[in-house]
Design goal:
With 498 residues, the protein is α/β, with parallel strands linked by helices. It is 23% helix and 26% strand. The chain has three domains: 1-30, no CATH class; 38-119, Immunoglobulin-like, CATH 2.60.40.10; 125-498, no CATH class. Strands 1, 3, 4, 6, 7 and 8 form a six-stranded mixed β-sheet that branches. A six-stranded mixed β-sheet has the order 19-18-20-24-25-26, sandwiched between helices. It binds calcium ion (4 copies).
């Protein structure tokens, strides 16, 4: 700024004394030196070195006659300084030569001694992510996917993208499996992609329950065999999980799997491609800080589970104290506070305080796959079924949920074999970017490992996988539920994104 001001003074005085010949030296206030010549060059005192960060402060000797200094990186001007030091930010790894010159009104000195800085930033490697895109979407979504890939790389992951058209889920798994040894932590499946089918005998209803099973794609080294060749992995507790076991390794998941697909939504006028593009737009908006949700969680426990409220609350470790709202009042035999209408207003009514309050909502309510039924289950209480109201997929579709993440403890909510399954509606109908649901009965019970991991800053995919490894899951024979667990949405997000 000092030099610019002098130029201005020269111009102003030239205007004032217009027509009068004034020797330039009379209006030259600059130059502390006496020699009317450029200063001597400084000497850089910072030593040659290798750094592992992206910046370094360069220091040099002061030159008496200098007004300021210019710093050059690989002979290109980089910065100017009135002191004898300057922090230089290097963009990428490489070898850089630094020189400094001194300046005054008579010009610029020759360059200082050069120093060499080698920048060797160790890349943060959090793991590799596989992204499979249904080939019919590949071109249409290319710009969205390019942005998504870049966002994931920025987080510290590496990415492989596959344009996928094979409908055989075993071949998809065979393609995923070799990547595990290369540090792959999970797979994101975009659009309509194959899934495994499993079934169990529901002795209460005396029927087989058939469901989509992403656990098959998550356990890469356990043994899965359709021994009776019925097209389903028979994995019910009653048949002792007959067609899935440790094999020569273990039956737990090695990776997480997430799906981003609106293709089970069936509504007149619904455009899945637009819906996907909107999803990725929202995802990027959150990542760059343009979507805001305060760190608030809602735990909504309907009648059937409300008696254990204190335990559910204590295990909900991502949100505690003032950050947690728990609704768990109940009356087994009449409508009560935890009902479909009130729940919907909590998650969608923009006049409700919840609009700005909830980052994540965990709801425990009965469900048949397409509608959540508040109130006591008919099985235990035949005359009081859903007396607290029914929340259908149309209610979700018409009201656009506002929270970013949902955990649905609601039977069959994420079953890809059910058209208009409600978990898919939760993901695409409003602002959500991640939904956990179950494609068979149950959901994420014994959930503390999941919420501990989220609390500790892990991404949703890792927290989801951690839940399967929870010490209480296997001993208590909760394998029945794990077979149906699903993550819909972006598993690379975390809480506290904004
Ligand atoms: Ca079978
Ligand atoms: Ca395994
Ligand atoms: Ca009730
Ligand atoms: Ca209720």
């Amino acid at each position: 700024m000092k030099k610019i001001n002098k130029i201005l003074i020269v111009i102003v005085l030239s205007v004032i004394f217009i027509g009068v010949t004034i020797p330039f030296t009379l209006i030259n206030f600059g130059g502390r030196g006496t020699g009317n010549q450029p200063p001597n060059p400084p000497t850089i005192t910072t030593l040659n070195q290798t750094i592992t960060t992206d910046r370094l402060t360069i220091q040099w000797t002061s030159v008496t006659e200098a007004d300021n200094y210019s710093i050059y990186v690989n002979s290109v001007f980089n910065a100017s300084s009135y002191n004898n030091q300057e922090e230089i930010i290097f963009g990428v790894n490489g070898t850089y030569q630094i020189t400094v010159t001194a300046l005054n009104d008579f010009g610029e000195s020759s360059h200082s001694n050069p120093i060499t800085i080698i920048v060797g930033i160790t890349p943060i490697f959090l793991g590799n992510v596989l992204i499979y895109i249904n080939s019919s979407l590949y071109n249409s979504l290319s710009s969205d996917i390019t942005q998504y890939k870049q966002d994931i790389i920025t987080q510290g992951y590496t990415v492989n993208i596959f344009n996928w058209s094979n409908n055989n889920v075993t071949q998809l798994k065979n393609h995923i499996t070799p990547y595990y040894s290369n540090g792959t932590i999970g797979a994101v499946l975009i659009g309509k992609l194959p899934y495994a089918k499993a079934q169990y005998w529901d002795s209460s209803w005396m029927i087989f329950r058939q469901f989509s099973c992403d656990y098959y794609l998550m356990d890469l080294d356990g043994n899965w065999t359709d021994a009776n060749s019925n097209g389903f992995f028979d994995v019910g507790a009653l048949d002792n999980h007959l067609e899935h076991n440790n094999g020569t390794a273990d039956a737990l998941p090695e990776i997480w799997v997430a799906r981003i697909s609106p293709y089970t939504i069936s509504k007149v006028g619904f455009n899945p491609l637009t819906s996907l593009s909107n999803f990725f737009y929202r995802d990027h908006q959150l990542r760059i800080g343009l979507t805001y949700r305060p760190h608030q969680g809602l735990l909504y426990i309907d009648d059937e589970w409300a008696a254990y409220k204190s335990e559910w609350v204590s295990n909900f470790t991502t949100y505690t104290g003032a950050n947690l709202t728990c609704e768990a009042d109940y009356n087994y035999f009449a409508n009560d506070f935890t009902n479909a209408t009130y729940f919907l207003s909590n998650i969608s009514d923009i006049t409700h305080p919840a609009f700005t309050n909830y980052e994540l909502v965990h709801v425990m309510a009965h469900c048949n796959g397409t509608e959540q039924q508040f109130g006591i289950n008919a099985l235990q209480h035949p005359f009081y079924n859903a007396d607290d109201g029914i929340l259908t997929y149309n209610d979700i579709y018409n009201n656009g949920p506002q929270p970013l993440f949902f955990n649905l403890y609601s039977c069959f909510s994420a079953n890809l074999m059910i058209r208009n399954n409600i978990a898919t509606h939760y993901l695409f109908d409003g602002q959500s970017l991640g939904v956990i649901g179950c494609s068979r009965s149950g959901g994420m019970s014994l959930y503390q490992p999941f919420y501990d991991s989220l609390r500790d800053g892990k991404i949703f995919g890792e927290a989801f996988k951690d839940w399967f490894h929870g010490p209480e899951i296997i001993p208590l024979n909760h394998w029945e539920e794990v077979y149906g667990m699903k993550f819909f949405g972006d598993p690379l997000l975390t809480i506290h994104m904004t």
